[in-house]
From TrEMBL:
Residues covered by the GHMP kinase C-terminal domain: 238-284
Pathway membership: Isoprenoid biosynthesis; isopentenyl diphosphate biosynthesis via DXP pathway; isopentenyl diphosphate from 1-deoxy-D-xylulose 5-phosphate: step 3/6
Residue spans crossing the bilayer: none
Protein known as: 4-diphosphocytidyl-2-C-methyl-D-erythritol kinase
Reactions that this protein is recorded to catalyse: 4-CDP-2-C-methyl-D-erythritol + ATP = 4-CDP-2-C-methyl-D-erythritol 2-phosphate + ADP + H(+)
Sequence positions that bind ATP: P126, V127, A128, S129, G130, I131, G132, G133, G134, S135, A136
Coiled coil stretches, renumbered: none
Biological process according to GO: isopentenyl diphosphate biosynthetic process, methylerythritol 4-phosphate pathway; terpenoid biosynthetic process
Keywords of the record: ATP-binding, Isoprene biosynthesis, Kinase, Nucleotide-binding, Transferase
Homology family: Belongs to the GHMP kinase family. IspE subfamily.
Top EC class for this record: transferase
Signal sequence bounds: none
Organism (species): Blastomonas natatoria
Alphabetized InterPro entries for the sequence: GHMP_kinase_C_dom, GHMP_kinase_C_sf, GHMP_kinase_N_dom, IspE, Ribosomal_Su5_D2-typ_SF, Ribsml_uS5_D2-typ_fold_subgr
């Protein structure tokens, strides 16, 4: 059995520069990744079939059908690495019961061949929350199945597949701090001194927020480029330009930011991606853990997760 973590993604800063003719937006962002997230496991099967089961705190309501990003990633990999699947895809799909717990209808998406897999996703990250859970799952599926089926693709090839699946997925393939431009496909590894190992607390008010409506609410004002010359510059001069339109849709984001900002030992509190998740960077692990405990007691309905930046 092989295991991959689908690391939670954070936009330490997110500058939206312009709306393109194709409807996507040109971004400048510093991506960082937390050392935990969803977990994807693959077990071998020799009949060429692929199944997906989902369990964990956010499994409920998440479709295990063909549109799940894990399946979409698997299908894209199979099309580039057909010798491993030895099946013909697409084929009519039929529901197939799985024995895993939780939201667990597997689907057969490949015909007979040598290399199938039973995939099990433990969904720890809230869905549609600005920390790229679905994107991280797709990226983890690409990394995992590339190893599992011995496809031999390098990061560049995996990123090329990822780009066709979603804007954030190439960055999630790498899952190390990156300066990201374009709509998400232009990646530059960027290890800012002081960033890796930083204690972080993520907080979400428990309200899902889709990405498209938040971009739609952006006021189209270019507020200038992102200075990633140092962590201090990103903290002092960086922004999340999607915060105002996200707050217009989910006013509770203001409460989350206010609470995180007021915690002892916070260096930066900001919204991630299109929200509604926010994060706080701390001076020390103990300050981060104590904020986690205190806020959990105050706001039992909020989702909280603490960790270290990779
Ligand atoms: C805002 C960001 C910041 O990292 O993260 P999330 O909030 O999703 O985590 C990303 O740009 C989101 O990337 P991702 O969630 O992969 O978006 P996609 O599936 O490609 O696109 C969903 C929709 O968002 C809008 N979109 C996305 C990316 C982009 N650069 N410009 C856009 O306008 C488009 O309306 C698109 O139809
Ligand atoms: N494995 C998956 N996990 C989460 N969302 C998924 C998955 N597969 C497909 N989706 C869909 O992708 C959308 C975006 O999910 P997600 O990546 O969690 O959002 P965000 O990028 O805002 O954090 C959701 O609306 C969900 O329906």
């Amino acid at each position: 059995m092989l295991i991959e973590t689908a690391y939670a993604k954070i936009n330490l800063a997110l500058h939206v520069r312009r709306r393109r003719a194709d409807g996507y937006h040109e971004l400048e962002s510093l991506f960082a990744f937390v050392d935990s997230g969803d977990v994807l496991r693959a077990e071998p099967r020799n009949d060429g079939l692929l199944t997906l089961s989902i369990e964990g705190p956010f499994a409920q309501g998440l479709d295990t059908g063909p549109e799940n990003l894990v399946y979409r990633a698997a299908r894209s990999l199979i099309s580039v690495c057909p010798e491993r699947s030895r099946g013909t895809y697409p084929r009519p799909m039929r529901a197939r019961p799985s024995t895993a717990l939780g939201n667990s209808d597997g689907l057969q998406i490949m015909d007979s061949g040598q290399a199938g897999a039973n995939l099990h996703l433990t969904k720890n990250l809230p869905v549609a929350s600005g920390i790229g859970g679905g994107s991280a799952d797709a990226a983890a599926a690409l990394r995992l199945l590339n190893r599992f089926w011995n496809c031999g693709l390098d990061d560049r090839a995996l990123c090329a597949i990822a780009e066709t699946l979603g804007s954030d997925i190439p960055a999630c393939v790498i899952s190390q701090s990156l300066r990201v431009e374009g709509r998400g496909e232009a990646l530059e590894a960027l290890e800012l001194p002081g960033l890796s190992g930083t204690p972080i607390l993520l907080a979400n008010p428990g309200i899902p927020l889709g990405t498209a409506p938040v971009f739609k609410g952006w006021d189209q004002q270019d507020r200038g480029p992102l200075d990633t010359s140092s962590l201090e510059a990103v903290i002092a001069l960086g922004r999340n330009d999607l915060e105002p339109p996200a707050r217009a849709l989910v006013p509770e984001i203001g409460q989350v930011l206010e609470r995180l900002s007021a915690a002892h030992g916070v260096r930066l509190a900001r919204m991630s991606g299109s929200g509604a998740s926010c994060f706080a960077l701390f001076d020390s692990v103990s300050a981060c853990q104590s904020a986690h405990q205190i806020i959990a007691a105050e706001q039992p309905e909020w989702w909280l997760m603490s960790g270290l930046l990779r």
